Amino acid sequence: MKPKQLFHKAFAGAVLLASCCLWSCNSDPEPVIAGSEAKTYYKQIALGVEFGTGSGVVHKWETNLKIFVTGEPADYLLLELDKIIEEINALSGSGTKLERVSDEADANFEIFFGSGNDYAAIEPNAASYVAANWGLTWIYWNTSSVIYQGSMYVDIYRATDMSAQKHLLREELTQSLGLLNDSYDYANSIFTRPGLRPPSMQTSTGK
Question: How far apart are the first and last CA of the chain?
Answer without folding.
Answer: 24
